């Protein structure tokens, strides 16, 4: 995946709603990435199935 910074795929964080771009450390698991960082992952919204 050799793309320029302006052409990287983006997603919206499920916690904060901000867009974030693909990172090299996510190259093998980009489809599973849902949060922009560890803080958002720790503070993720409660799922209704777990309640």
Question: Can you describe this structure in just a few lines?
Answer:
The protein is built from 1 helix and 2 strands. With 51 residues, the protein is low in regular secondary structure. The radius of gyration is 13 Å and the shape is elongated.
Structural features, described:
The protein is 10% helix and 12% strand. It has 51 residues and is low in regular secondary structure. It has a two-stranded antiparallel ribbon. The mean pLDDT is 87.
Question: How do the strands and helices of this protein lay out in sequence?
Answer:
Elements: E1 10-12, E2 19-21, H1 38-42
Antiparallel strand pairs: 1-2
Radius of gyration: 13 Å
Task: Write out the strand line-up for the largest beta sheet, numbering strands in chain order.
Answer: 1-2
| Beta-strand residue percentage | 5-15%
Q: What's the rounded overall pLDDT mean?
A: 87
Taking the sheet with the most strands, its summary is: 2 strands, antiparallel
Oligomer: single chain
Secondary-structure element sequence?
EEH
Count of DSSP-assigned helices: 1
What gap, in angstroms, lies between the N and C termini?
Answer: 40 Å
Counting DSSP E segments of at least 2 residues, the number of strands comes to 2
Give me some keywords for this one:
single chain, 51 residues, little secondary structure, two-stranded antiparallel ribbon, 1 helix, 12% strand
């Amino acid at each position: 995946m050799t793309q320029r910074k302006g052409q990287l795929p983006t997603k919206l964080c499920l916690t904060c709603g901000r867009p974030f771009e693909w990172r090299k450390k996510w190259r093998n698991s980009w489809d599973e990435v849902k949060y922009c960082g560890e803080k958002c992952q720790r503070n993720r919204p409660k799922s209704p199935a777990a309640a």
